[in-house]
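Technical annex, item 7. During the second reporting period the consortium partners agreed on a shared format for inverse folding records so that results from different sites could be compared directly. Each record opens with the tokenized structure and is followed by the designed sequence. A conforming record, contributed by the partner at site C, is shown below for reference.
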């Protein structure tokens, strides 16, 4: 934390502008050594100066240099950002010049880690930064902004405050039993408050697990025998002619992927090879891949032909998807009906005619219903969006449940307090009120270089 770090903060490649970020107590002095223009050590904070980065008497690049003095910067340290031309050679040369004058190359996420360690942000807000970078839709970006803006942290702080009041009341009773004006606290007194806290945590956890699954990107596999319309379905969903469509069975021999957003939530659509017994070696490899994707997918779209009877192979395939979220899509409703629907629940069936573009909107609406997409709030959410935070919330909930169990078993109140205090500490780990160095290294190493 005492050294000065530097890194390229923009994508490496050809572009109009690149930014080299420098942070630490010597950042201004280091950049000043290679900058020809105003004396950066004398300019006011939050100002931009025009000049050149120099290598002895040679100009490296024409630049704009932003100076942000401590504590009013992202890391709360002195920060300098050099805006240079976006060429790969120019950018690397400017960074090299900064490093030669005494800065150290930053580790991935080290700027954000310093912001956390210096009290600028908490861990939930730090994870919000990564979520903003990785957001694929506007809705996911808004959810990330709520994290960065402190709304989610406030929710955890409020939970901890409610638990803290219970702990305080218990300790007053334990430490000062001789005072007559202090109400004697019993297990029955704190049980209603614990039950309310549990209910709030259960709601947050349920919503968060759903959001976390959605955030990772729902993988939808389109499966079925050859020539049922799987590729046509993919093309209709992504509104692009990505998969080859012919009347010849077995046209799709490999995995074809596409992406869509439904209600601002990203979905990855995978068109698999038609599943059937075949002697064709290449097609057989595709069939094996298709069976593997059934296991990997979060959601299955099983496509059947309306004008054909169910085959034994299709019934066997249906058995393989029973433990998954799935829908049965009966395609070619424009043709004479021969399929028997008795094998399937009506709640899982959508009738379609991809040739006439019928059933696509019904399918999207059904997916929205299954994943409760219309219930996702982006203005005032109560979601934790990282696996780390959700795991800790689960742990805190188990500790609250343990305290409730002990109360119901008639345990002494000072014993019950141990679990309640553990829950309070665990919630603190979510926002970083308490943390371990190893945890921080693991968390921030997932960030990109320069962030």
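Designed sequence (site C submission):
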């Amino acid at each position: 934390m005492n050294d000065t770090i530097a890194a390229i903060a923009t994508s490496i490649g050809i572009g109009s502008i690149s930014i080299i970020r420098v942070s630490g107590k010597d950042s201004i002095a280091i950049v000043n050594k290679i900058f020809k223009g105003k004396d950066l050590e004398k300019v006011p904070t939050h100002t931009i100066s025009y000049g050149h980065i120099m290598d002895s008497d040679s100009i490296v690049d024409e630049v704009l240099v932003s100076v942000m003095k401590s504590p009013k910067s992202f890391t709360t340290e002195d920060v300098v950002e050099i805006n240079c031309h976006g060429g790969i050679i120019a950018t690397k040369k400017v960074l090299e010049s900064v490093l030669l004058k005494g800065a150290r190359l930053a580790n991935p996420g080290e700027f954000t880690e310093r912001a956390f360690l210096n009290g600028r942000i908490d861990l939930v807000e730090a994870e919000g930064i990564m979520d903003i970078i990785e957001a694929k839709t506007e809705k996911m970006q808004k959810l990330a902004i709520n994290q960065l803006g402190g709304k989610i942290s406030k929710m955890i702080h409020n939970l901890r405050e409610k638990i803290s009041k219970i702990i305080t009341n218990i300790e007053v009773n334990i430490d000062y039993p001789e005072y007559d004006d202090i109400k004697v606290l019993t297990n029955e007194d704190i049980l209603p408050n614990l039950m309310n806290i549990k209910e709030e945590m259960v709601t947050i956890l349920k919503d968060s697990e759903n959001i976390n699954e959605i955030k990772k990107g729902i993988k939808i596999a389109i499966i079925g025998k050859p020539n049922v319309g799987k590729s046509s379905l993919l093309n209709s969903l992504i509104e692009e002619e990505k998969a080859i469509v012919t009347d010849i069975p077995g046209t799709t021999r490999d995995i074809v992927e596409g992406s869509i957003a439904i209600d601002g939530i990203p979905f990855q659509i995978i068109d698999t090879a038609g599943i059937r017994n075949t002697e064709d070696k290449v097609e057989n490899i595709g069939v094996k891949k298709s069976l593997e994707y059934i296991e990997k997918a979060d959601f299955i779209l099983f496509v059947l032909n309306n004008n054909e009877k169910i085959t034994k192979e299709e019934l066997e395939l249906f058995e393989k998807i029973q433990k998954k979220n799935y829908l049965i899509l009966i395609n070619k409703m424009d043709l004479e009906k021969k399929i028997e629907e008795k094998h399937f629940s009506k709640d899982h069936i959508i009738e379609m005619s991809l040739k006439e573009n019928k059933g696509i909107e019904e399918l999207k609406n059904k997916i929205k219903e299954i994943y409760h997409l219309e219930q996702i709030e982006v203005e005032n959410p109560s979601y934790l969006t990282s696996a780390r935070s959700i795991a800790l919330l689960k742990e805190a909930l188990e500790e609250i449940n343990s305290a409730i169990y002990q109360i119901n078993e008639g345990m002494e109140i000072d014993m019950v307090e141990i679990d309640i205090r553990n829950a309070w500490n665990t919630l603190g780990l979510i926002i970083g009120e308490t943390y371990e160095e190893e945890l921080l290294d693991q968390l921030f190493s997932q960030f990109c270089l320069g962030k």
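The longest strand covers residues 58-68. The chain is about 45% helix and 20% strand. All partners now use this format for quarterly exchanges.
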